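Exam revision sheet. Question 4 asks you to relate a sequence to its structure. Input first:
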Amino acid sequence: MDKVILLADPKSASWKFAEKIKNYISSKYSINVPLRELSIKMFASLEQDMETMDNVRRKDVFFIHDSTKKPSDWWVELLILKDALLSSSAETVSFVLPNMLYSRKDWKDRSHVPITARALASSISPGLKRIITMDLHSASIQGFYPESMPLDNLPSYPSVINHLKRNSSEFGELEKIVVVTPDVGGAKRAANFAKNAGSEYPIAIVDKRRDPITGKTKSVNLVGDVKEKDCLILDDIIDSGGTLCDAAALLKENGARKIYCFATHGLFTKGSEELCRSFDKVMTSNTYYRENFPPIEIIDMSSIFAEAIYQAQTGGSVSELFKIKKEYSQ
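Answer key, structure tokens:
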């Protein structure tokens, strides 16, 4: 770890997340990993320029990026920074992308459209050592990246499960909760959660259909029994929240009691009022760098990313992070 440098923009929302990663490694492993500043400037023409404020020669640089930025800026900054670091003789460059933008377009759902997740992979992967992210929209996105450049897709469920157990008085009888996925594509995510939670949680699946004219989705059918049971809906992203509100309404129509929700990446582009009316509790993580967003509960994921950096750099097992350990959610 003596060659590792953490890098982030001190003016961005990712700086506090980077500080948490640094502090976790220092506290647990007694290693002082330096956190260095990245200076990002904008020309009058709105073109970006950047400069690392410290020497990175022969260093292993982990850049923690800001997923709250305008997506096009987020993408361009990755390309420019990679060039800057490699041109400055960094030994290796790794990207820490808690929320991988452009990951929702991972296949062609109709003619004449891009596979944006693949386009991102082909542009940023050359020259990188690895990427560390969390709860990709689809695990198949890992296949867009070369074998020589690992993409570590960290799970959020260890921290979520620990949070539920620590606050069990708020969630009733945890062992009787039904784990719900708001679409068929999330069935594996729900199954992984149920399998690792230490209890035989039943699973229910919401059948979501897309209107071919408007493009909007609607929850139409429910597979599974939720009558007189508490439910926990799991998803990777809360964008506008419309899909989750539809799913909550369908669960209530089928007799569910309390309904909770966790989505890893909380964008809340339409606010949170309707979501909070639809659910008894809404939870998200800080991969979108929110520290406090009442009444939404924020679950900290920085320790899992810190562990991933440490294990990857010291030759440890990143897959160990898929196991439930209390320290990952402190």
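Marking note for examiners. The two ends are 23 Å apart (CA to CA).
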